[in-house]
Amino acid sequence: MPTITIDPVTRIEGHAKITLQLDEQGEVQDARFHVTQVRGFEKLCEGRPFTEMPALMARICGICPTSHLLASSKACDDIMAVRIPETAEKLRRIMNLAQIIQSHALSFFYLSSPDFLLGMDADPEERNIMGLVRKHPQMARDGIQLRQFGQRVLETLGGKRIHPGWIVPGGVSHPLQAEQRDQILAMIPEATRITRNALSWFKGQIENFRTEIRSFANFPSMFLAMANDANQFSAYTGWLRFINSNLEIVADHITGADYLNYIGESCNEDSYLKSTYFKPLGLKQGVYRVGPLARLNMCRTAGTPMADEELAEFRELERRSVWSSFYYHYARLIEILFSIERMNTLLNDPEILGKNVRAHASPNKYEGVGILEAPRGTLIHHYHIDENGLIKSANMVIASGHNNEAMNHGVLQVARQFVKGKTLHQGMLNRVEAVIRCFDPCLSCSTHAAGMMPLDIQLIAPDGEVIDRLVR
Amino acid sequence: MPRVLLIGYGNTLCGDDALGPVAIERLSKMVADAEFIACHQLSPELAERVAICDLAVFVDATCQGEPGTVRVEQLVPVAVVGSAIFTHYVNPSTVLELAKTLYGRAPQAMLVTGAGAKFHNSEGLSEKGREALDEICRIVPQLVRDFVLTT
Questions:
Q1: Which residues of chain B have a CB within 8 Å of the CB of A141?
Q2: Which residue of A has its CA nearest to B98?
Q3: Scanning every residue of chain A, which has its alpha carbon at the shortest distance from the alpha carbon of B80?
Q4: Does B44 contact chain A (CB < 8 Å)?
Q5: What is the pTM of this model?
Q6: What is the interface pTM, i.e. ipTM, of the complex?
Q7: Which of A350, A432, B15, B86 is deepest in the core (most CB within 10 A)?
């Protein structure tokens, strides 16, 4: 069967390829997103002391180490059966918000805005961050500054911007100082200005992307995110909730103790990325999405004034839940705004300078689960230990796994819309990649990228003849 | 007094790839009146800090050349398309181009590369890596002194 391969997929975090299978009539019959790198962290941590897990797990990724650090620390808190001090929880929340800001800024400004600003059909030599710098320098400066803000918060609290070690089982290693708090607070007005400008600009662009909105993974699915009693945006505490495409609750109050009753994982022969699904419905019917779009569909209010205004406008897009994955970009900007506002509130809480920031305990359970909302979606760390506190087994369910089947659906939908005929052009292929960028999958990019492969796409006729080829 | 920025980058968990960050740690005790950055990889956020210095020295490891040897090259601002396409990772010339385009100024800049012998998952430098480190720490202070004397 003829196949088109897009390898590697560019402007995502990690290495992956897309294959498009054509039928005899040249129509796209199936599409798959393949992750071609293996990391193996679940196996290599076996036998390590559980207290090492946060630092070890943070090495999974150079973009979202803080998310793994937090989820891992929460799993260790569970093993120790401690409730961490309130100040420590607030400080961890700030770290999580800073992580969301820097990661979303990277996704929106560095990876995706070249598509919005330079056009989906622009030459890929231009349609990248350097093209953005040349044609829209203020947008580029803003993107750099916003990401820098998130990174500086991480660096101020954690000691360094990548792989900070400040978050530990039981809380954080040391309290926040007043001058550190003031440094962060001083940066908030500018970060707010940049985010509001970006939101205003993006909303003005939406009309230009109607075709993409219609076809970029625009389908009914369930959504998974953390929830709480107030139905407010929640990224650190709460339980898990599934809703359907009409915003009705499908499963609620799911905790670390019973998530395996609802979330199944399936291995794929052609990819190192597992497919995660809603267990009661099985792999084919149990497709759901996580991340910014899911979180905004899930919550009734954000809980901060400016983000709530934006959320109200976002909700006007649809009467039901918002289905088009193109709106992940929009949701990311709203989440940045929320994160800045919430961080401001937390930093202005007098308790934030409290000195009691760590609970100490030995293991009190043989099992622990940590759940939080990472920038890309729900992240679960689940550990079993032996009587010596050594890891017997570890399971990590990551956002890109939750979204895997939805990404496959999205690639198929967009390929059917844009890949037609016997001649390939960059615009159609970029749209196939761009639908993946909506989800911002993170495939672990912490290792050095040696020997980048060029993009090589071949259109092969049923008789095996290469009828078109694009290389970049 | 000219502003000097020394940036070492590399993965400290990949053997001799740690040359850049390790060199910066040692150089920070040898070179006065300079700013030091040790990082995993170069990113666009560095452009702003580069734009406000007069001399930027990038220190990196390489798997090319005779292990233990060191090479110095002058850099000019130029965007390298490959690195620009691949997201958040950029090379030194692209950092200079970003500094020039976004912040109006690119400093004089040099890339100092030390050839390593092993780059697999491990901590600590090889013998050849340590030779390159010694040479880098001999050359870079001299480069800085020469620059300060001529400006």
A1: 102-103
A2: A133
A3: A130
A4: yes
A5: 0.88
A6: 0.82
A7: A432
What range does the domain containing B88 cover?
4-150
Note whether B45 contacts A148, CB cutoff 8 Å: yes
Identify residue A99 by its one-letter amino acid code: Q
The answer to whether the CB atoms of B87 and A59 lie below 8 A apart is no
Residue type, A462: P
Give the domain CATH number at B42: 3.40.50.1450
Q: Does B81 touch chain A (CB under 8 A)?
A: yes
Q: Which residues pair with A447 in a beta bridge?
A: none
Q: For chains A and B, what is the number of CB pairs under 8 angstroms?
A: 72
DSSP tag of B40: S
Looking at the structure, do residues A424 and A331 belong to the same domain, yes or no? Answer: no
| Shared domain check, A332 and A453 | no
Residues A440-470 have pLDDT tens digits of 877 643 222 223 333 444 555 556 565 565 5
What gap in Å lies between CA A282 and CA A277, rounded to an integer? 7
Q: Is residue A220 part of a domain?
A: no
Residues B88, A167: Cα–Cα separation, whole Å: 25
Does B88 contact A110 at a Cβ distance shorter than 8 Å? yes
Question: Between chains, do A59 and B44 touch, taking CB under 8 Å as contact?
Answer: no
Shared-domain flag, residues A100 and A163: yes
Q: What is the CA radius of gyration of chain A?
A: 22
When pLDDT is cut at 50, 70 and 90, the band that residue B100 belongs to is very high
CA distances (Å), origin A217, targets A43, A335, A376: 33, 20, 16
Do the chains contact at B40 and A446, CB–CB below 8 Å? Answer: yes
- CB proximity list for A138: less than 8 A, separation 6 or greater: none
The Cα–Cα gap between A162 and A165 comes to 9
Same domain? A193 vs A342: yes
**Residues forming beta bridges with residue A380, ordered by sequence position:** A371, A397
Q: Which of the listed ranges A159-173, A241-255, A256-270 does the model predict with the highest average pLDDT?
A: A241-255
* CA nearest to A150, candidates A106, A208, A209, A90: A106
Do A14 and A93 have their domain in common?
no
Looking at beta carbons, which residues of chain B come within 8 Å of A110?
44, 87-88
The position carrying tokens 């970049």 is: A472
How many structural domains comprise chain A?
Answer: 2
> Which domain range does residue A115 map to?
83-213+327-360
Instruction: Find the residue in A nearest to B43 (Cα).
Output: A144
- Does A208 lie in the same domain as A130? yes
CB contact under 8 A, A147 and B45: yes
Substitution target in B83, B88, B93, B100 with the highest count of A β-carbons within 10 Å is B88
Q: Which position has the token pair 């915003």?
A: A247
Question: What is the total count of domains within chain B?
Answer: 1
Rounded CA separation A273/B84 (Å): 26
Contact A91, A176 (CB under 8 A): yes
